[in-house]
Amino acid sequence: xxxxxIRHAGLREKVMSADKAAQFIQNGMMLAITGFTGAGYPKxxxxxxxxxxxxxxxxxxxxxxxxxxGASTAPECDGVLAEAKALHFRSPFQSDxxxxxxxxxxxxxxxxxxxxxxxQHMRQGFYxxxxxxxxxxxxxxxxxxxxxxxxxxxxxxxxxxxDKIIIEINDALSAGLEGMHDIYDEVGxxxxxxxxxxxxxFDRIGTAGLAIDPDKVLAIVLTSAGDRNxxxxxxxxxxxxIAAQVIDFLDHEVKAGRLPKSLxxxxxxxxxxxxxxxxGLLDAPFDDLEGYTEVLQDGMLDLILAKKMKTASATALSFxxxxxxxxxxxxxxxKDKIVLRPxxxxxxxxxxxxxxxxxxxxxxxxxxxGNINSTHIMGTRMMNGIGGSGDFTRNGFFSIYVSPSTAKxxxxxxxxxxxxxxxxxxxxxxxxxxxxxxxxxRGKSPKQRAKVIIDNCSHPDYRDMLRDYYDxxxxxxxxxxxxxxxxxxxEALSWHQRFVETGDMRIK
Length: 508
Known about the structure:
Blueprint: H1 9-12, H2 18-22, E1 30-33, H3 45-58, E2 65-68, H4 75-83, E3 87-91, H5 97-104, E4 109-110, H6 118-123, E5 132-140, E6 145-148, H7 155-161, E7 164-170, E8 210-211, E9 217-223, H8 237-255, E10 266-268, H9 272-280, E11 289-292, E12 295-296, H10 298-305, E13 309-314, E14 316-317, H11 321-329, H12 331-334, E15 338-340, H13 343-346, H14 349-355, E16 358-362, E17 365-367, E18 372-373, E19 376-377, E20 381-382, H15 389-395, E21 398-402, E22 406-407, E23 412-413, E24 415-416, E25 431-434, E26 437-440, H16 446-457, H17 460-480, H18 494-502
Parallel strand pairs: 1-2, 1-5, 2-3, 3-4, 5-7, 7-9, 10-16, 11-13, 12-14, 13-15, 16-21, 17-24, 21-25
Antiparallel strand pairs: 5-6, 6-8, 17-18, 19-20, 22-23, 25-26
């Protein structure tokens, strides 16, 4: 039973139902709720809060809360709260369709931001006061130390910063998680920050649990429910071709002497394509790999189980159902190979730069000069958010962006004249990869980048259109003396406008 996971006798007295615990949540509160890419989020409280909101709205009363998470949660957290119109503010990353619709309809204020900044913003009061932290845990020790769940995210700062705490103890989580976390909470504030003492990807610098003040605990709710364990699609031909491009490039860099045979620590973003790259490394000519990432997915887990990867550091574990089963079955083997950290550590620019992390992330689109849009559809509609991609892009040894060259059955080109929204600029992006090929942007001017991106990455259906745009932009820019980055300003976003109006970027 879940109550056996509460080994602190005094805290057992605070166990209550989710409905009773939800009564502590009042209209207008700011909540810090754990959860990171479908792991570590509360399973019962959000529904209870949503029901309270619906009851209030039925009586003509106002009820909504602000919510800051680690990253995305799940339908039973973000989804139920958005559906109940119980959110007026949300940050920093999301992926729920109901929440997304509320954001894009202007019903929910949404702040998208780099994940490495979240805890600092909390600590410095940029969000205002946090009334309550709602945290999922695997256990509470005899000494009152909280053992986090499958995702930590901003959980440490949430507990320290909030006035009060509500804890969900989930006995569906393996008890073997205890000992896998590395809790470090000494980042501090300027001007007195000290270096974070991680010089190797698997260095442990903290404790297994976080000491909590029993007096701050309002309630403990017992649950037994799994994380959002979404099944990954089997790698298709496009994903396999993208993965092969990345692996061939890494092999080339090893042979050129720019990478060791074990590579450098790997970061992989979320999604099917990124996971396919990890899966492709199973048969690649590299051994003794290391991971330093934010989310550890199926592909990286399988590398560890196959002994191709020695160790991996993350802030969350986000598995398919099959991978979760493999994780639980092998948890004793994995205990000294996986470490879970607060996201202020997993995404910290200082550490990413020191370790020389190879960052691999997905994109919505890239333009011919190497700027990346990873968040907005047609420039205005939020998809998910920037997450940690910027942390690794700006500070990694390599920054790689991957995507199929087209979407919507060919109606959208992933390579466009100008991105409709900038998330990562040409100054930070080193490589762009589609199933068509790879563009190495190192040491190249904008005009040189345009040639390799168009030639190597664009789909044949769009390649001539891109060349035509660039050639005409170059001629027009010569007349104005602006040939460093040639553009036709009135035409640069016409591809997006054409899709909005006709449903296809192609000229027919």
